[in-house]
Amino acid sequence: MPTLDDLLKAIKASGKQPGSRIPVIGNLRRNRQTVDLDMVKLAFEYAQEAHRGQTRKSGGPYIEHCLATAITLAQMGMDQETIIAGLLHDVPEDTAFSLVDIEKNFGSEVATLVAGITKLGKIKYRGIERYSENLRKMFISMAQDIRTIVIKMADRLHNLETLQYLPAKKQRRIAEESLEIYAPIADRLGMGQIKGEIEDQSFPYVNPEAFEWMQREILPKVELKKEYIERVIKVLAKELADKKLKVVSISGRPKRIYSLYHKLLKAPYDRDVSKIYDLVAARVIVPSVADCYHVLGIVHQLWKPLRGRVKDFISQPKPNGYRSLHTTVFGPEGKIVEIQIRTPQMHAQAEYGIAAHWYYKEAGDRANWRRIGDRGHTLPKKLKWIEDLVSWQKEISDSQLYLTSLTLDAFGNRIFVFTPKGDVIDLPEAATPVDFAYHVHTFIGDHCAGARINNQLVSLDTALKSGDVCEIITDKNRKGPSRDWLRFAKTTAAKAKIRANAPRR
Ligand code: MN
Fold first, then answer.
1. CA of 484 to the centre of ligand 1 (A)
2. Separation of 114 CA from ligand 1 center, angstroms?
3. 270, 318, 357, 396: which sits with the fewest CB atoms below 10 Å from its CB?
4. Does a structural domain hold residue 450?
5. What is the predicted pLDDT for the residue at 124?
6. CA-to-CA distance for 49 and 317, rounded, in angstroms?
């Protein structure tokens, strides 16, 4: 069971090295912001007093849960206010102590965070009809202060870790909700570590047969591949040392069980694990971006790459911010192996996502943050999509339409399409030039008469692909959009504007 001492240790550790949830990062320039340990102790004593006499279903004292949540936050390198709010997150909901009292003792910032979590409430998963409502709640609190969601994720993770003490029906409900709501949001925020843990913890409760099958049939094969990767790493480490390349770390990364299961179900894998090249990948962490490309060159001299399998997520990051180089090569003994190359900073972004922003937040990087709302909360500029979602929700009155398409927009795979000037537009998969046009400007959408993709004239229902350059041809005399476009428009915003602006027949 976690103790106050564990929390203090986690905070101190996060001051000089990243938390144990990401063990491989070297000495980075860290957020030097300090945490007042006496204040954390006070918050602990306050929470302990408030929850006195309450127990968890495990039989242990309730404070265990508060501590576990705060420890996760400390390991992620979150700031003092977030760690304290983690300790106090269940106080207003479950005890006689009020939010006003929390504000008096710990200040308005902590109180606002705790209020945000309390407002989010105990989301109860009641199937698809409440699904969108829960999502909306999450998005709104995210836009107010993104730290609320980070605390909620830490809270959920501990609830999942102690799920065995709950009755079977509740176990399943909480696990389903975690897979359908929490994991996708964690993914969209780039929190790979949290997303992975939430999925793997939920998996056995949601699909026990599949979990059992994975344990029995697949994991032994992962073990075999691990042994092979060890040999790959030895050869590669020696080669990099010979070439005098400084390496922060080099290790094997087994794919997580839930995401592996999902990949196995998809074509072309069809449950054949031998077709999955990244079952266990070799991961190389080097100090700089230039080093990453240097390592890639060395790897390709050593082993022949598979055609079309080099992925440069450094020059073209994924929509959630993920950056890394991936390549698949014919390794020792001619076996196929994936190698991932990144810097420590890219690694922190991949594991912590949004939380990495606190990790690295320094006085100078204010330019990358935007002030939103009247309380002066800040959000990294990259996360403008959260604000967009919230403002669309206010804009679009047909709430049923909004709710069903929100989920598609937010979690479908995203593609990047370029304007002729080189601006990047982030769209859902299979979006069309009409979606693109409305994304650029309502006027352009309303007056869209044709489109060119990569200089070729195409019909308006053509599906766009990542990397396409899209140019919209407008006709100023056009009376407005055509209702027929609803057949193929993909985004909520485009559909709503077509409905609103199409001339009546
Ligand atoms: Mn809780």
1. 48
2. 11
3. 270
4. yes
5. 52
6. 46
Q: Provide the residue type at 28 as one letter.
A: L
User: Which amino acid would we find at residue 313?
Assistant: F
Question: What pLDDT shows up at residue 12?
Answer: 82
Residues 215, 205: Cα–Cα separation, whole Å = 14
Domains held by the chain: number: 3
Residue 472 is assigned to a structural domain of this protein: yes
Between the CA of 258 and the centroid of ligand 1 the distance, in Å, is 24
Does 13 lie in the same domain as 102?
Answer: yes
Return the CATH number at 130: 1.10.3210.10
CATH code where residue 269 lies? 3.30.460.10
CA 155 – ligand 1 centroid, Å: 5
Same domain, 187 and 277: no
Tell me which residue of 74, 65, 60, 61 sits closest to 20, measured CA to CA: 74
The beta strand positions in 228-368, using DSSP E, are 249-254, 280-285, 304-305, 311-312, 325-330, 336-342
Instruction: Tell me the two tokens of residue 22.
Output: 């990401």
Q: Could you give the dihedral angle defined by the CA atoms of residues 39, 40, 45 and 48, in that order, rounded to the nearest 10 degrees?
A: 150
pLDDT reading at 504 higher than 50? yes
Owner of token pair 């420890």: 71
Do 344 and 25 meet the contact criterion of CB atoms below 8 Å apart?
yes
Q: What is the pLDDT of residue 43?
A: 97
Does residue 55 sit in the same domain as residue 178?
A: yes
| 454 alpha carbon – ligand 1 mean position (Å) | 51
Q: What is the pLDDT of residues 338-394, one digit of tens each?
A: 999 999 888 988 888 877 766 555 434 555 555 544 444 455 555 566 666 555 555
Other C-beta atoms lying within 10 Å of the C-beta of residue 215 = 12
State the catalytic residues: 93-94
3-class DSSP assignment, residue 362: coil
CB distance 7 to 71 below 8 Å: yes
Examine the pLDDT at 259 and tell me if it is beyond 80: yes
Over the chain, what is the mean pLDDT? 83
Whether residues 252 and 333 share a domain: the answer is: yes
* 334 and 223 co-located in one domain: yes
pLDDT in the model for residue 322: 87
Reported as a single tens digit per residue, the pLDDT across 382-422 is 556 666 655 555 554 344 444 444 444 444 566 767 777 76
Has residue 321 been placed in a domain? yes
Per-residue model confidence (pLDDT) at position 117: 87
Instruction: State which of 307, 342, 377 marks the end of a domain.
Output: 342
The pLDDT value recorded for residue 423 is 65
141 neighbors 112 (Cβ within 8 angstroms): no
Domain extent at residue 27: 4-203
Q: Is the pLDDT of residue 248 over 60?
A: yes
Lowest-confidence segment of 130-134, 172-176, 193-197, 263-267 by average pLDDT: 130-134
133 and 74 belong to one structural domain: yes
pLDDT at 21: 38
CA 205 – ligand 1 centroid, Å:
20
Same domain, yes or no, for 193 and 63? yes
